[in-house]
Write a structure and sequence with these properties.
- The protein has 75 helices and no strands.
- About 22% of the residues have low confidence.
């Protein structure tokens, strides 16, 4: 610090220093800041005195100036004494004696300024002695010790009652007197003071006695508190706290128990701030650490109990365990030491000192304090008091009185809540400290819930200001927190209190389900771990749940249900979690569990809904089984449970529906299973593919008929549940979103979700998605009001273009809307005009249709490319998609069936003697009412259908525009209308078939019924293979209905003539658009139609066999499903049925171990097929096989090449046809049969690009193979199977087989069994030669018969007799050439243009098989000649038809012929050499007596001979360079696809031959087959013989 006395002042002291110093002192003493002035004056005086000690200033100068300064302040002498004291200490330590002397002189000079007593107090006794103020320092010291002893150590006050019993007696009398008069604490205090003075009472002991008396008289707070407060002014502040602390210490020994009165006194003193909590807290036991330890111990114990409960204890161990537990419990019952902190806390709560109570609770672990019941109850009481006014105002239910609660007497208690805002400030806080222990006071629980309810009512009513809204928001979040932390945990600890659960639901139902589910989630997954008590409760609940579930059966549903109910009131989340886990494992529990849930409260049902959703969303669970092909059983069980439980009980659905929607948004469709089940159970709308035709028929009627006859289960009492479902969907705006999401997800299943999944599962998911969409859409259509529906579903173009809904789904959703719209418009128009004539009604109906559908026609245009509308009109498209079966036909038989059922029922009621009369009457009335309803509905539908048909009659002319070709029109119709819709639902499948028939019956222009049916039946492989399981079923239904129609027409000429005869759909010449020549000659006649039907049956067989042979899961499954569905109408032809039967039998054998589901399907079909066998007919009964020649040709050609694996390309031919029609008209009129040949050849053949070989080869191969399989033994049988069956598929693909041949062979086989047996082992060469001769003879006969057939052709051909004769010559010539060449040519598939590249091996196998069957290894054989004749005759037929073709030069023809012959000769030579080699090999092999090698070598030989030769041959022998074709034919080949030509010609030829000489031919083939077998089975010797004989034959 800077010196206050500058050195200049000391030097010039007399001049000016003294006055400066005095001025400084005055200024310092006048300073307003007392402390600063005091310090500065001290320093100034010290510096002055120090100058004197150092000798810079004389002591008299200093004493003088100090005399002047001393008056400036009252305490100046004291300050000066302090300065002297410091200087005394400093100088006594100095060695310089003069300084000490200066100091002594200064003090002596200043004695007059400072009194002796002050100096004696502060200076050292020795200094005092040297100053002469005392005589002897030693004496002075002794005296002061004595005085101190007397003062401090001699007792003058009495603190024991016995030391001054009179005084204390008087004190107690004073405090204990009646205080009701005018006695005040001040008066008593004066008396106490007097007593203390008079009797020397110890004031601390007096305070202690005041507290004791206060403890005994707690009601006199108003007296004692002021008394103690006044008394404390005389004591040190800590005294009271120490005394109280001492009192508490007294009770801290183990046996002591602190009295509640002491707690109360301490609490009151704390509340009045007479002591500090921190000061008192340290005096209380136990310490905080001990409390934390105890809390941890409790948690550990709780966990141990849980572990014991969950452990499986064997019975022997159980008894020991129980004994140990008992011992432990006995030890625990010893009373725990007193917890003074909790005692004080309870007292604080009781008197309403929330502030201090909260401080104590904060020192402890959460909920530790309130886990002690007295504290919880005290806090509950405090809350009761605090909420009283608000509860009385808003919470008391109507009609309830309730018992009012008086407020606390002291004014320092928390303020009572008058509003919700005040509630938040204190009460919510208190409740949070209570936590789960609110369970101790159910009444308070109910009050809090009711306040919550009242708040929610206010919260949800609008009209408050913005600030208020914010406040309310805050309050709402607080309420949710309270619910989460207090109400739900407390409910868990209550003992099955159903009323509390219902009370809580009253508040919960006002929350949105999102909040509720969040609360349940916290309750289930978080709350139970927060507190030891809750941990125990959870374990006990699970234990009890296990006990109940083990014993739950259908028989004891009621008692078990009661137990479940009881348990669920308090701990629903834990219970349901366990129950659901059991249901997921054991689905047979579903029914008893659903029935046993009838005793639940509303809250529990809501919790159940949450638990179900949580179980569904469980991320740890796999939604697929391990094989990845099926949906997990747990998910199926849960879905089933969902449906049942939501139907039976009033559970809110919004959460579940939203969950499904969210899953769909996320691209997951597994959970649609739940929606499907819920809709099925709640609305009674089933989606099943197993519907009978009767049910399907009923489903096409009105609502009443659907309910009575359309469903499997009797649909009863779904009104309420479907209403609930509807409300949930509408309230949460989920109806349309779910539809759209499902519609979009169908493709999502395939392209996104199905990425890695098994095809079977993808199909399942797709079906599930689709079925649920159909079911859900059906539900909406039947349950939503017209307004609701129209308001929610957007127009078709918006659905498709904006929401990207697939068209079929979009129309499915819009269809009910159109129907609603039209009917409402129609009703309006009817009301407007009262005209009752039928004609007027129809006119109004058509008008209303136009009004409604016109915008749809516009909207539809945007759905497809503009060129689509060249063929079909938007009106036709919209009409097709907007109508349903209800609009097209009335199911009279269904109505009759249901009415008859009701009549039977009524009769049964009459006959029932036991039924009471009133019940009889009721039942009869019900049946009569139903009957009337059904009849009324039938009448209504009949009128409606008539109106619709009238409308269609008017529309039909604008339907099909066919601006390109009729063929293209049919393509568009099938592609955009029929195929998408026929697999949409079972009813749609029926609808599509009916619609096709309807379009035909309406004589719709440009619609070729024949083409349409042909395209449907011709090649079903692709459609079948691309279906899912359910789609296959629906596709099967569609084919079944189509076949039904065709079969009806096929069955009777009268029906055919009536329904098809003059109909444009059966015109066989497809003219340029707009020209409708209804010439009878252009119509397909009945017999030809039967051929066509046979061809369709054959095509179906071919496709079926192909699918069955692929080995592909989807192909096999789907075709089996389709076949099962079309069983009533197919197979009708015996041999086709047998072929199928064999193939299916093979599937049964192959799949038994591998794929049990396919095995089951195949076995099922196989059984049904066998039962249908008696109804099958031989082929000649199905259609005439030997008709007049004019019919034979068309039939043959119709059965022409239809390669299973080839894409249809009808359109090209049709276009070509139409171009050429004008040229050919005249011809066609003359040669009706030829015209039919040509048209059908082009339109009906599925694959004109394929050229086929001799049709026999395939069919023979098949039959012979089947025979082989039967006849061969053990090893060879297996070997044959291996060799032959696999190749059948490619063969079927490659060869467009002639449908006629196969059946013929079948029958021939039967007739010649005896002969086969004989021929099995030819013994001599002679016999063999005999056989050969027979073969030759048969060949010649055949060629003759062929010629005769050709001669006997229709008159148009007779005119051209020359042509056949030339053919005959040519044929003979060819035959001789063949024989000369060594018969090298083998029938082959001419230039097979398969879209799928085939491997070499399969090619060779095919060739080999064909050779085995056809050529029989005899190089020259009749089929070659037949082939040539085929080609000649067919081509000549074609030549007649086409007059305008110019001829080729003959020289060219000869050149080509020559080349061909050369090539074939070379080939035959090569083959002979190879044969020679093979023979040698075989001899060698035979000597080793090995059987299998010869087989292999022959196979190899055939492969070498066959594949090389045939492939060369096929290259060279396209019809254009064939030497056998005349010039005109060649020219014609330019205009037609060469492959097709050849195929057709072969087929035609084949047909003629087979029809004429089927027996001979089949016999001939049989012989070849037998020999072949013999050769295979009996080794080289026989083979050698055989070859010799074949050489001779050559």
């Amino acid at each position: 610090m800077a010196a206050l006395l500058p050195a200049e002042w000391i030097k010039n002291w007399e001049k000016g220093g003294k006055s400066e110093f005095v001025q400084l002192c005055r200024a310092l003493s006048e300073n307003k800041n007392h402390d600063v002035g005091f310090r500065d004056i001290q320093q100034a005086l010290y510096e002055l005195a120090y100058h004197v000690v150092r000798g810079n200033l004389k002591h008299d100068q200093a004493s003088n100036v100090l005399g002047d300064v001393i008056e400036f302040r009252e305490d100046m002498p004291s300050i000066l004494a302090d300065v002297f004291c410091i200087l005394d200490i400093e100088t006594s330590c100095l060695e310089e004696k003069n300084k000490r002397d200066h100091f002594t002189q200064l003090v002596l000079a200043c004695l007059y300024l400072v009194s002796d007593t002050v100096l004696k107090e502060r200076l050292d006794p020795e200094t005092l002695e040297s100053l002469g103020l005392i005589k002897q320092s030693q004496q002075f010291n002794q005296k002061s010790v004595k005085i101190k002893t007397k003062l401090f150590y001699k007792q003058q006050k009495f603190n024991l009652l016995r030391e001054e019993n009179e005084g204390y007696a008087k004190l107690i009398a004073e405090l204990g007197q009646d205080l009701s008069g005018n006695i005040t604490s001040d008066l008593i205090l004066e008396n106490i003071k007097s007593l203390i003075g008079c009797f020397n009472l110890d004031p601390n002991r007096v305070l202690d006695i005041i507290l004791e008396v206060y403890e005994c008289r707690p009601e006199y707070d108003d007296f004692f508190v002021p008394l103690i407060e006044s008394y404390m002014y005389m004591c040190e502040p800590q005294t009271l706290c120490h005394i109280l602390g001492f009192k508490f210490k007294f009770y801290q020994d183990p046996s002591g128990e602190t009295p509640s009165s002491l707690y109360r006194v301490a609490a009151v003193l704390l509340q009045h701030n007479l002591i500090d909590l921190e000061d008192l807290y340290v005096h209380l036991l136990p310490g905080d650490n001990a409390i934390i330890e105890e809390h941890k111990r409790e948690i550990v114990e709780a966990k141990q109990i849980v572990r014991k409960l969950t452990m499986v204890v064997l019975s022997s161990e159980k008894t020991e365990e129980k004994e140990k537990e008992k011992e432990k419990e006995e030890e625990k019952t010893e009373k725990p030491p007193d917890n003074q902190k909790l005692g004080l806390l309870e007292a604080l709560l009781k008197i309403g000192d929330w502030h201090h109570a909260q401080s104590i609770m904060d020192q402890m672990p959460p909920f530790y304090s309130t886990s002690h019941k007295p504290i919880a109850i005290a806090l509950c009481q405090l809350v009761h008091v605090t909420i009283e006014p608000l509860y009385r105002r808003v919470g008391v239910p109507k009609g309830a009185k309730g018992s009012p609660i008086s407020s606390l007497p002291n004014k320092r208690a928390p303020k009572q809540a008058e509003s919700f805002e005040e509630l938040r400030k204190e009460v919510f806080n208190m409740l949070c400290y209570l936590g789960p222990h609110l369970s101790h006071d159910p009444i308070l629980f109910a009050k809090v819930v009711r306040l919550g309810k009242a708040f929610m009512k206010e919260f949800q009513s609008d009209g408050s200001k913005q600030e208020d809204k914010e406040k309310m928001e805050t309050l709402f979040s607080c309420l949710l927190s309270i619910t989460d932390q207090v109400l739900l945990p407390s409910l868990s600890l209550m003992d099955c209190n159903a009323c509390m659960s219902e009370e809580l639901w009253g508040m919960f139902k006002t929350f949105p389900y999102q909040y509720r589910y969040r609360l349940y989630g916290q309750w289930k997954n978080e709350t139970y771990n927060s507190h030891p008590l809750l941990v125990k409760v959870k374990a006990q609940t699970i234990d009890r749940a296990k006990y109940i579930m083990k014993r739950l059966t259908k028989e004891n549903v009621k008692p078990s249900g009661r137990q479940i109910g009881k348990l669920s009131h308090s701990n629903p989340t834990i219970l349901f979690d366990y129950i659901l886990s059991q249901i997921q494992k054991y689905d047979n529990l579903i029914t008893p569990v659903v029935d046993s849930l009838k005793y639940l409260t509303s809250l529990n049902y809501d919790v159940l809904a949450y638990c179900i959703i949580e179980a569904l969303a469980n991320p740890e669970k796999e939604r697929m089984k391990h094989d990845d092909t099926t949906i997990s059983s747990w998910l199926q069980s849960l879905a089933s449970f969902c449906g049942a439980v939501f139907r039976k009980y009033p559970i809110e659905l919004a959460g579940l529906l939203q969950y499904v929607a969210n899953q769909l948004k996320a691209g997951k469709s597994f959970d649609l299973l739940i929606l499907k089940e819920v809709v099925q159970k709640m609305a009674g709308i089933e989606i099943t593919e197993e519907m009978t035709m009767e049910q399907l028929e009923a489903m096409t009627g009105g609502e009443q008929l659907k309910a009575e006859g359309g469903y499997f289960g009797q649909i009863r009492n779904t009104k309420k549940s479907s209403q609930r479902l509807k409300d949930a969907l509408l309230d949460h705006d989920l109806a349309l979103p779910l539809c759209l999401l499902m519609a979009q997800q169908r493709n999502g299943v395939v392209f996104q979700e199905g990425g890695e999944k098994h095809l079977k599962l993808v199909g399942k998911l797709y079906d599930q998605c689709h079925d649920t969409l159909v079911q859900f859409g059906g539900f909406l259509a039947s349950n939503l009001s017209t307004e609701d529906y129209i308001k929610r579903v957007p127009s078709i173009d918006v659905l498709c273009n904006e929401f990207h809904t697939p068209h079929d789904a979009a129309f499915f959703l819009s269809r009910p809307m159109y129907a609603h719209h039209i009917s409402s418009k129609y009703d309006e128009l009817k009301k407007a005009e009262k005209g009752n004539k039928q004609q007027h009604k129809v006119h109004k109906y058509i008008t209303s249709c136009e009004l409604v559908m016109a915008p749809v026609h516009e909207a539809v245009i945007s759905l497809h490319l503009p060129k689509v509308w060249d063929d079909i009109s938007p009106q036709f498209y919209a009409t097709f998609w907007s109508l349903t079966m209800y609009d097209l036909a009335v199911p009279h038989s269904s109505y009759d069936r249901e009415v008859n059922k009701l009549k039977v029922q009524m009769k049964a009621i009459d006959d029932n003697q036991e039924m009471p009369p009133n019940k009889k009457k009721k039942e009869k009335e019900r049946c009569t009412a139903l009957q009337d309803k059904l009849l009324e509905e039938e009448k209504k539908q009949l009128e409606h259908v008539q109106r619709v048909l009238q409308r269609l009659k008017l529309e039909k002319d604008n339907w099909l525009l066919a601006k390109s070709t009729k063929n293209e029109t049919i393509t568009k119709f099938l592609q955009l209308c029929i195929f998408p819709r026929c697999i949409f639902s079972a009813i749609d499948a029926v609808y599509c078939a009916h619609f096709v028939e309807l379009v035909h019956q309406q004589k719709t222009p440009n619609f070729s019924t024949l083409l349409c049916y042909d395209r449907v039946f011709s090649d079903i492989i692709y459609t079948v293979a691309s279906c899912t399981e359910n789609e296959a079923s629906r596709y099967g239904r569609f084919l079944c209905c189509m076949l039904e129609t065709v079969t009806r027409w096929h069955s009777d000429r009268v029906i055919y003539e009536k329904e098809c005869g003059n109909y444009p759909g059966f015109l066989t010449i497809l003219r340029a658009t707009g020209f409708d020549g209804g010439n009878k000659a252009d119509q397909l006649d009945y017999e030809n139609f039967r051929h066509v039907v046979h061809k369709w049956h054959y095509k179906l067989t071919k496709a079926s066999v192909h699918c069955l042979e692929t080995g592909e899961y989807t192909h096999i499954r789907n075709i089996l499903i389709v076949l099962t569905k079309i069983l009533p109408w197919y197979p009708k032809v015996l041999n086709l049925g047998q072929a199928l039967e064999r193939r299916v039998h093979k599937i049964c054998q192959e799949e038994k171990e591998k794929r049990p589901d396919l095995y089951a399907l195949a076995m099922g079909y196989s059984g049904q097929l066998k039962s249908r066998k008696p109804f099958m007919i031989p082929e000649n009964e199905f259609h005439h096989k030997d008709p007049p020649a004019r019919n034979a040709v068309p039939a043959t050609v119709q059965n022409g090449p239809g390669g299973a694996g080839m894409p249809t390309s009808l359109t090209i031919n049709t276009v070509r046809l139409e171009e050429g029609t004008t040229e050919e008209t005249a011809d066609k009129l003359k040669e009706k049969s030829q015209g039919v040949v040509k048209v059908i050849n082009k339109t009906v053949n599925a694959t004109p690009k394929v050229t086929t070989s001799n049709g026999n080869s395939a069919s023979n191969s098949k039959i012979i193979k089947e025979k082989d399989e039967k006849e061969k033994s053990g090893k060879e049988k297996d070997k044959e199977k291996k060799d032959k069956t696999p190749a059948a598929t490619p063969e079927m693909k490659a060869l467009g087989k002639d449908g006629k041949d196969k059946p013929k062979e079948e029958r021939a086989n039967k007739e010649e069994k005896a002969r086969e047996i004989k021929e099995k082992t030819p013994k001599s060469d002679k016999e063999k030669e005999k056989v050969k001769k027979e073969e030759k003879a048969s060949k010649e006969e055949k060629s003759k018969t062929v010629v005769t057939i050709i001669e006997s052709k229709s008159t148009a051909e007779k005119e051209r007799e020359k042509e056949p004769s030339r053919e005959r010559d040519l044929a003979k010539e060819m035959k001789s050439k063949e024989n000369a060449k060594g018969g090298e040519k083998v029938p082959v598939a001419g230039s097979l243009k398969s879209p799928v590249p085939r491997s070499e091996t399969s090619e060779s196998e095919r060739e080999q098989k064909r050779r085995k069957v056809d050529t029989h290894s005899s190089p020259s054989h009749s089929s070659t000649v037949k082939d040539n004749l085929n080609e000649l005759k067919e081509s000549s037929a074609k030549h007649y038809i086409n007059h305008t073709t110019p001829t080729l030069s003959k020289s060219k023809e000869r050149e080509v012929e020559k080349k061909d012959l050369d090539k074939s000769r070379e080939r035959s030579r090569e083959r002979e050499k190879k044969d020679e080699k093979d023979r040698k090999d075989r001899k060698r092999d035979h000597s080793n007596s090995d059987r299998e090698v010869p087989q292999d070598s022959t196979k190899r030989r055939k492969e070498e001979n066959g594949t090389t030769g045939s492939s060369k041959h096929s290259k060279s022998e396209s019809p254009s360079d064939s030497p056998r074709l005349n010039e005109k034919e060649k020219e014609k080949n330019k205009s037609k696809s060469s492959g097709k030509e050849k195929g057709d010609s072969i087929k035609a030829e084949k047909m003629e031959k087979s029809s004429s000489g089927s027996k001979k031919e089949s016999r001939h083939d049989k012989e070849k087959a037998e020999k072949k077998e013999k050769r295979d089975s009996t080794g080289g010797k026989e083979e050698k013989k055989h070859h010799k004989s074949s050489d001779k034959h050559r």
